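[Discussion] Sanity-checking designs against the backbone

I'm trying to build intuition for which residues belong where. Below is a structure token string of 154 positions. I'd appreciate it if someone posts a full sequence so I can compare it with mine line by line.
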């Protein structure tokens, strides 16, 4: 079960990124015909990112303390000291942006340049922030892996 939780977190994040890219591409080509697809993609992005945070938060509260201790004793303590600390303080911004995406995407983008520009801007911010979170998670994961290998707990 723990592996399922551990893999669900980044998987949901990646699906959220992909859905945000979908919003971006559809919004760049906004028309009456694709307005419904834009809304579906925006809601998919928001739901996936919210679920990624719920799953990640569950992991953090219930299991991360052992990993944190190992990382701090291992060869890459910066994996926690910089990357996890950054994630802990920055993730709210991504969550707000993900929730904002379906709100801004509900406007008639084909008829409103400002609504289209706002949707594109929010989608780009979600994509960039989510990629940064994924990258930080990879560094944290590698820091834990190195620490456990060093301790002989492969």
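Best answer:
Here's mine. Compare freely.
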């Amino acid at each position: 079960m723990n592996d399922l939780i551990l893999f669900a977190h980044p998987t949901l994040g990646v699906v959220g990124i992909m859905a945000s890219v979908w919003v971006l591409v559809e919004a760049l080509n906004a028309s009456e015909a694709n307005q419904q697809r834009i809304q579906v993609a925006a809601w998919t992005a928001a739901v996936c990112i919210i679920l990624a945070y719920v799953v990640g938060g569950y992991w953090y509260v219930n299991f991360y303390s052992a990993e944190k201790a190992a990382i701090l004793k291992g060869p890459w303590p910066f994996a926690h000291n910089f990357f996890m600390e950054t994630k802990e303080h920055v993730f709210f911004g991504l969550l707000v942006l993900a929730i904002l995406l379906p709100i801004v995407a509900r406007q008639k983008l084909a008829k409103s340049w400002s609504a289209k520009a706002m949707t594109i801007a929010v989608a780009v911010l979600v994509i960039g922030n989510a990629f940064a979170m994924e990258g930080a998670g990879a560094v944290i994961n590698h820091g834990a892996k190195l620490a456990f290998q060093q301790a002989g707990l492969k």
